Amino acid sequence: MDLEQIVNEVITLSKEVGSFIRQERHNFSADKIEYKGLNDMVSYVDKSAEEKIVTRLEKILPEAGFITEEQTRNRIGERYNWIIDPLDGTTNFIHGLPVFSVSIALKEYDQLVAGVVYEINLDECFYAWNGAPAYLNGKEISVSKAPKIGDSLIATGFPYYNFEKQPQYIELFTYLMKNCHGLRRLGSAAVDLAYTACGRFDCYYEYNLNAWDCAAGVVIVRQAGGEVVNFSGGDEVLDSRELLATNGKVTGEMLEAIGRYFKD
């Protein structure tokens, strides 16, 4: 399989779908919102974007299955599966906050092998595949060199449902607030990971994530020289619903802080 060729096709697709999303944002109104659960919103834009994506991907790799947020397809492939978030940052999109993205990853058996994150508003496409560097709009990128938390700008995500671990989260948040350059919450896990890959963030952590939120970004961070682990330090992040992505230099310090404050 030529992963580079596949990624290039996915880049083209992501930009086309991104253009559709950008155009729809101009005419979007609140009466077009649907609710899947508490604070879990979706619109026709998410669904239409996903349909456009899966229709094209079926032609690029016909034997592949799909793991998608809006469940446009419910077919699991034996060897290959696409993991898709057609509009990561739906809440931002709905409210007109310009941080949202298209996120598409490819998994071969249990291994993530390629990922594309297209941040629509800045026209920035981050991508990577196994055996190659990570890129932003054709230019090779790498994670930051910050040696410790005290030198880091850290990204996170706030839970909008499932608040069982909120007390632990707040304790960790408070500690990091006092011990790093700053904390940011953009509202798109895919963008947080992409920004970690290119060194804008030194670290990103979040819990209660789904596979489609982070799969593409995980590939990009790892190929950019970073590390992505769960809160126990293991490599499995798609099913654990918790994720820590770093430049590789602050991983140990972050895991120590997570273990101290973010307890089960």
Describe the fold and architecture.
This protein is an alpha+beta fold and about 260 residues long. The chain has helices spanning about 5-25, 45-60, 90-95, 165-180, 190-195, 210-225, 250-260, and strands at about 35, 40-45, 65-70, 80-90, 100-110, 110-120, 125-130, 135, 140, 155, 180-185, 205, 225-230, 240-245. The chain has a 7-stranded mixed beta sheet, sandwiched between helices. About 45% of the residues are buried.
What topology emerges from the helices and strands here?
Layout: H1 3-26, E1 33-37, E2 40-43, H2 44-60, E3 65-68, E4 80-88, H3 90-95, E5 101-108, E6 111-119, E7 124-129, E8 134-136, E9 139-141, E10 153-156, H4 166-179, E11 182-184, H5 189-197, E12 203-207, H6 211-223, E13 227-229, E14 242-246, H7 251-261
Please list the strands of the largest sheet in the order they lie side by side.
3-4-5-6-7-8-9
Shape: globular
Total of DSSP H or I helical runs spanning 4+ residues: 7
Q: What is the rounded distance between the termini?
A: 42 Å
Radius of gyration in whole Å, from Cα?
17 Å
Give the amount of beta strand, in percent.
25-35%
Name a few traits of the molecule.
14 strands; single chain; alpha+beta; 264 residues; 36% helix; 7 helices; 27% strand; globular; seven-stranded mixed β-sheet
